[in-house]
Amino acid sequence: MSVPRLSVVIVTLNEEERIRACLESVAWADEIVVVDSESQDKTVQIAREMTDHVVVRPWPGFAAQKNFAVAQASGDWILSLDADETVSPLLRAEIERGDSGGPFVLTDGTVAGVVFAEARSDEQVGYALSPTAVAARVSPGVGRTSPVEVGACIR
């Protein structure tokens, strides 16, 4: 059984003060995708120092930009972060463990009112995180949830 590849997607706009810490916290990921919304600061320059996969495009709206970023990712699992978030060692260990006994989200893509991006139809399993540090293992069609430790994962 092969180890699933992890893609991290980050949508940015004028985040030069925060993007480096965010990217450093996920440098261990298999792929990092940054979709920048035409920043006027050094966000793109900093991102390009840390990943080759930087796309600059106009801001079409939050959901459209996030969905575009997810579509650029090639990993089996996708972690979507905001530029002001960092992945803690605790969350990294949880993601790297990747066991099938992890938490699940409802088939409508929600956990406790937090909306997750829909898994692409070609994916068997995905991984999603909300900005509020609720982690959930996404498995289309499962339709069950379990509690997840909150607060220590993303700072």
Characterize the structure shown.
Strands 3-2-1-4 form a four-stranded parallel sheet, sandwiched between helices. Strands 5-6 form a two-stranded antiparallel sheet. Strands 7-8 form a two-stranded antiparallel sheet. Helix content is 23%, strand content 23%. It has one domain: Spore Coat Polysaccharide Biosynthesis Protein SpsA, Chain A (Alpha-Beta Complex). It has 155 residues and is of the alpha/beta class.
Rounded mean pLDDT score: 72
Principal-axis shape? globular
Ends distance: 33 Å
Question: What is the number of E strands?
Answer: 8
Residue share in helices? 10-25%
Beta-strand residue fraction: 15-25%
Provide the gyration radius in Å.
Answer: 15 Å
Order of helices and strands: EHEHEHEHEEEE
State the fourth-level CATH superfamily: Spore Coat Polysaccharide Biosynthesis Protein SpsA, Chain A
Using the coordinates above, name the CATH class. Alpha Beta
User: Structural class of the secondary elements?
Assistant: alpha/beta
Oligomeric assembly: single chain
Largest sheet: 4 strands, parallel
